[in-house]
Amino acid sequence: MTAPSEQWVGRSVPRKEDAPLVTGTGMYVPDMNLPGTLEVAFVRSPLPHARITRIDTSAALALDGVVAVFAGPDIRDHVTPLVLDQEAPPPGLEAADPQILPATIEILADGEVRHVGQAVAAVVAETRYLAEDAAELVLVEYEDLPAVIDPEAAKQPGAPIVYENVPDNVQARYRIRVGDADGAFAKAPHTLSLRVRSQRIAASPMETRGVLATCVGEQITLWSSTQIPHIVRNAVANQIGAAQWQVRVITPHVGGGFGCKVQVYPEEVLLAHIARVIRKPVRWVEDRQENLISTGHARDQIHDAEVAFDDEGRITAVRDRFILDSGVACPYPLSSAYNVASHFRSMYAIPNFAIDAECVLTHKMFNLPYRGAGRPEAAFVMDRIINSVAQALDLEPVDVIRRNLIPDAEQPYRMHMPYRDGKEVVYDAAGFPRIFEELLETVGYDEHRRTRDEQKSRGVHRGIGFGTYVEGTGVGPFESGQVQLDAQGRVVVFSGCAPHGQGLETTMSQVVADAFGLVPEEVVFRAGDTALIPYGVGTFASRSVVTAGAAIFEGAERLKARIRAIAGELLESDPADLEISGGEVRVKGVPARKVTFRQIYRAASPGPGARLPKGMDPGSAEAFYWVPPTVTWGFGAVAAVVEVDVETGVVDVRKLVIVHDCGRILNPQIVEGQLEGGLVQGVGATMYEHVVYDDGGQPRATTFLDYLLPTSAEAPEIIQRHSETPSDRNPLGVKGVGEAGPIAPPAAIANAIIDAVRPTRIQLNALPLSPAVVAEAIRVAANPSP
Amino acid sequence: MTLADFLRGPLALTGTHLGCEHGVCGACTVLFDGRSARSCLLFAGQANGHEVTTIEGLGSREKPHALMRAFSEMHGLQCGFCTPGFIVSAYEYLRENPAASREAMRKDLSGNICRCTGYLKIFAAVERAAEIMAAEGTRR
After folding, report:
1. Same domain membership, residue B112 and residue B86
2. A209 touches chain B (CB under 8 A)
């Protein structure tokens, strides 16, 4: 039994999740073993845009072991397409004039295909081998239709239309005006403009998507590798015409998500339908090629930015127009596109700001938020602007950063524009100059500045560059937490979040252990199952520690009050005189007078044995739904140290230093892990990763030999410095951290390369920064065309 | 049938994971006569007469291998999907290089992709396992 004063929050408690995962006894969707499970393989479109003129499934059905084949016409009367208006603008967002048309995601193509990889038919067979062989026997005839692949071409009059309900291919747009940007430009002594591109990315969790569905009686159960089980449940029930109670969605172990599993997918809806028709367990496990072409991509933005600044490099205004290449849909325009606006100005005091965004449809895979969700794209533009201002005025970039950072005296800083929840962006943060100076000291910037010319003379082209970020975290609309006692006297926690690697079982157990005077191993935490709790949102957007954490914290406080009241009844004592720890309630100063949680549970149970204070309903569970007032702002800055081979353009990212603030830290080791993993994903997005489509709309990076993820050989040294300013927007004082890592590396690394090749003055404004891109930038700068 | 599918299906040894099925990610790594191999690129029949060791052969919940304990202790995993393959590769690495050096490890463990950790805590876990194994006098 532990002392009640023991504090678990703030300590690197070992993860409760690990024992099955390290021993190979985890249970991911592909590992499940339900007797008689049939396996599903998909026939997918080989063309970006075509009319289906004929589907012949007879040869596939004739193969021994094939149970059924489903094509679009077969499900037309039973399953409806996903028409997504899942990000309707909330009140307060009128100032941004958002115009969002519903995005359509078909379950199986019916009539037309609109991107390579779109599901056309599903084959159900006794084994996956058979299903895949049979899928090759499904004959589909297509008539080519004109496709539009380039998003700028898609906006031109006469361009092929992707969906009829989006007549100009612009599915969503918004515009924001803060201050008077045009006036500031007219008065500015200097202006410059940049075209900045963030490439198309595949989130690439190591576990692909997968679904196992059963139908027993009227009960449909889906085990899905998703980040949003409750949202999947609601959508599946709606699309297949089932009552909500008939559908239960469970996330077993999930092998990463990073945003690409924050969407209800056609395969989830279809597998539920197939299980309902065939009445046997059916499973589909995505292969990696499918994952790279049929799981939502991300980013893919083209920015035209302009900046107005004075002689000292103080920025007076920024104007930006950008296009987000949505592919066939932008299901989350407020996350993918609007986040760009609300995070654009980062830590900088820029009084005049104008931004215009368009989410443009093309015949490619749809575009989802991926770790950072608009923030890395915005931060890349903003810190390339800062660096370009320095280059234009022949100033040190660090001095331009310093001159533009929001001083502490101006915090809490108002951005005079709404966040995507409709509330004004007001930073609940301070210390931007402080963390930036700490960053310079930690990375050894002064030493670098003293020695860089001498290093260059020895042929070592080493550079240091910087990127900054702010991050609105813990976005609503809500998250759920239910804290209860079970009959064995355990404290059991249910939540609507859906952890898949974040360690929430551990961190939430730390929070609850502190509330009840327990050790974290004694707390039972369960999530990722719609049967546990009626409402839930999910785990994404750096939100769970904030929103589920607050819900669980408040639920625990309510349960403690209930326990005290019942114990007061049992012990004939004033509840205020009671203390709770170790699964017992004791009268302070009289430790022998006590009741156990087991006794409390019995006393709280309905029936004649109940012993409850007057007026209290039976029960030993308290649910709480945390609705955040608005987001809480994490922030940080990253320095990259690179060495560049100026002949070949090969860049060695040697070190990343991050100084960050994510509010109160529940578990330092887990926060470090989140940042390290995020930073290395940032290296991947900056240097290697690129979902390439050719001009004909064919994806060209469909294996891990072409889509390059960082390996251990590319992982730089990472140094972290933590600042801890508690948030006052939630009871735990926490801010989210999941997405912090990948936001700043693109700008930091690009700016470091630019520093490394000085005095040659180059621009690096399009990701990824492959050796060819870097070498070409150096060549162009060294030999300017006449 | 591939060796990976044979292990996972008929033998129900689902600790060997499939991340890409084309020999890049390393999640399916097993020891084939003691040497690491991608079980997604081998046919089950090729294993006839050979010794195959999977994650399940290295340790269990009841008797976890030093690497399993060290991965947990040093937070060398998040989602856990790549972890069994990584531990099998690290097992071979430590057998050949009992005194783990980080610079060598960066190259030698680059055949396993982890999307969550950024690798640094995996290096720390392998170093920690080397310490535990030295202290406990185990070579493997």
Report:
1. yes
2. no
